[in-house]
Amino acid sequence: MTAWAAGAWAAGAWTGTAWQASAPVTVPDVVGQTQAEATAALQADGFVVAVATAASSTVPVGAVISQAPAGGAEASPGSTVTITVSTGEVDLTDPKFQGPSHNTRIRWERKRKEETAAAEESDLVEPPAPEPIAPAPKPRSTGLGEITPPPVEVRAPEIKIPEIKVIAPVKTAAAAAPEIAPATTPAATVEATAAEVKPAAPPAPPAITPADLARIEREMTAFVEGVVAALTKRVTALDKEMQASNEELAAARREIAELRRLEVNRRRAEELARKIVEDDD
C-alpha cells in the first residue's frame, strides 16, 4: 500500500471508489416527543429506530420516556437508536397481575413438600407413653376415730291462718217493707199521660235553592282546582329535587369507583413490591 493509499485509508475514503466512511454524528435528544416525531428526527439524521414500550404514570401515552444512546452522544449514521415509548399508567387490576409470582409459587410448593415430609415422619414416630396418674393422698388421721356431727333440729316456721268471718246481710227499711200491689189505672188516664210525654217533632230543614247549588258547585270547583295546582307544583319541585339527587348520587358513585380503583392499584403495587423483595431474598 502506497503512502497515498495509507493516507486515504486513515482519512476514511478511497479515491476513485464508491466506498466512503461516515463520520460520527450527534444523536438528537427526542425524550418527551411523540413516537412519530422522534422517529422522523432520528431517521432524518440517518439512524435506524427501534421502539420499546414501558408503563409510566408521569409520561403521557405515546411520548418517549428514554433513548439509547442518549441525546447528545455521538454515533455513526446507520446505527440503531432505541426509544422507549410510554404506554400510560399500569392498571394493577388487570388479570395478569393477579396471583403470586412464579418464584413465590415455587417457594410455596417447596414449603408444602417440607411440611408434608415432616408430617409423615411424625406419623412414624411412636407417641410417648402417658405418665401414670398418682393416687390422691389419704387425709391425715386425727387419732380420735370417726367423728359424727350431732343432728341439727330444724323447726318449720309457724304459719297463722286468718279467721274467716261471715257477715249476714242487713235488711233495709225498703227491703223490709211489705210489697204493695199496684193500683189499677183507667185506660183514658194512661193515654193522656202518653200524649203528654211524647217528644216534639224536629223542625224541617230549610229548602236549598238552585242559586245555593250553583254557589256550592263554584266553591267546590275552585277548591279542587287550587288543590290540583298546588299538587302539580309540588310534584314538579319533587321531580327536580329527585333529578338533582340522582345526579349527585351518580357523581358520588363515580368518585367512589375511582377511589376504589386507586386503592386497589395502591394495594397491588405494595403487594408486588413485597413479592419482589421476597423473591430477591
Mind summarizing the main beta sheet?
A: 3 strands, mixed
Q: What is the number of beta strands?
A: 5
Which structural class do you get from the secondary structure elements? mainly alpha
Helix content: 40-55%
Determine the N-to-C terminus distance.
Answer: 62 Å
Compute the average pLDDT.
75
Order of helices and strands: HEHEEEEHHHH
General form: flat
Alpha carbon gyration radius: 57 Å
**Counting H and I runs of at least 4 residues, what is the number of helices?**
6
Note poorly predicted spans.
Answer: 1-20, 173-177
Biggest β-sheet: strands ordered side by side in the sheet: 2-5-3
Strand content: 5-15%
Provide a descriptive summary of the structure in words.
This protein is mainly alpha-helical and 281 residues long. It is 46% helix and 8% strand. Strands 2-5-3 form a three-stranded mixed sheet, covered by helices on one side. It starts with a helix and ends with a helix.
Structural features:
281 residues; single chain; 46% helix; two-stranded antiparallel sheet; Trypsin Inhibitor V, Chain A
List the helices and strands and how they pair.
Blueprint: H1 3-11, E1 25-26, H2 35-44, E2 48-54, E3 64-68, E4 74-75, E5 80-86, H3 102-124, H4 173-176, H5 187-197, H6 210-280
Parallel strand pairs: 2-5
Antiparallel strand pairs: 1-4, 3-5
What's the quick description here?
The protein has 281 residues and is mainly alpha-helical. It is 46% helix and 8% strand. The strands form two sheets. A three-stranded mixed beta sheet has the order 2-5-3, with helices on one face. A two-stranded antiparallel sheet has the order 1-4.
